[in-house]
Write a structure and sequence with these properties.
two-stranded antiparallel sheet, 29% helix, 169 residues, 5 helices, 8 strands, Rossmann fold, alpha/beta
Length: 169
């Protein structure tokens, strides 16, 4: 009986924490310089089935800017640019680094009553001023089971983004 109680508590507690994974795609080992500027693209909005999450691209760009702003004084977003070529053409001043986020998966579920977690997957690519890729990774997150109606995919972004950006500096 005691073993069953311990297993039940462990199962409940495991549903109380969101999980994250970071899968590196490319790494040059070059550390970013904190005094250098960053320009961030705004990804296309996330889609799941027929649902389009209309502000997910902006929320993703905002989360990326917040993560980089901890290390640099200049982190700007171009809302109409989704890729590196657009960032380079549209900029009015030279930036040292370009960041291109891409939403691969965005799934907002009513976890509190369905038990199906929110899911998120974002690819983040960082380039230097010469268009050389410095790093690229996929950040994935899955919400906790016990959300009580408060979690959404965008809530899964800050923690793994902050950890990943920290590793770049």
């Amino acid at each position: 009986m005691r073993a069953v109680s311990v297993l039940a508590v462990a199962a409940i507690l495991s549903g109380c924490a969101s999980t994250y994974t970071t899968t590196p795609i490319a790494q040059t080992g070059v550390k970013l310089v904190p005094s250098k500027s960053v320009l961030i693209a705004t990804p296309a909005n996330g889609v799941y089935g027929t649902a389009v999450y209309t502000t997910s691209g902006k929320m993703t760009a905002d989360a990326v800017r917040a993560a980089f702003s901890r290390y640099t004084g200049t982190a700007a977003i171009l809302p109409d640019c989704k890729d590196l070529a657009c960032l380079e053409k549209a900029q009015t001043q030279r930036y040292d680094y370009y960041v291109v986020p891409e939403i691969l998966h965005w799934e907002d579920r009513a976890t509190e009553w369905s038990g199906i977690p929110d899911k998120l997957e974002v690819k983040l690519s960082i380039f230097d001023g010469n268009k050389k890729e410095l790093a690229s990774t996929i950040i994935a997150g899955k919400s906790k089971w016990a959300t009580f109606g408060g979690d959404h995919p965008q809530d899964l972004l800050p923690e793994p983004l902050n950890k990943y950006v920290e590793s770049l500096y």
